[in-house]
Predict the structure.
Amino acid sequence: ANAMDFGDPSFQKEAAAENFNEAEWFTDKIGEMTGKGFQQNHINDFFEIIAEAYLKFEIKKKEQERPGRPAIDDAKRPKIIILTDNAGEAVFDMLLVKYLLELGFNVVIASRNTPVINDMTEQDMKALVEEMRSRSYFTEYNGTRLKVVTSGSNIFATSVSTLSSAFLKEYNDENTICVIAKGQGNAESLW
């Protein structure tokens, strides 16, 4: 947990105290953190964005269902970009990806350009998506509905100055409604 970094000098000083009880200290710190609440909880804003885009898309679909009107172009669906973080989380991220696809959104998964600590790379993510397709998980979603691109990042964060042209193309697309920046490095550096 980032709030309890054991490399922190203040922790080292506390731990050096004669009657230091690690379990008690840890429990106290957890209590402090939960008492404060999370500093940036945007979950309601996120679901509001998703719900608004979903409703607009559903209205658009209903209008398109009239006789003689062409089907909705997949490229015009609302789009969500997911910036990945740790490799171990990626399998669970696929549940979110599937859910968003089922709601009708296009999803772009952006991963690092090169290996950084334990983060997913674009090549890793492409291999994961292909493996899942081979197991019939994403077979109904073509390359327009589900894409994997590199973020362009070669470090543990996603600096705006290093964003790839593929990422910027998706980000600047008029149909992109939000970016889910997973991980502290992505969340703190992208903006």
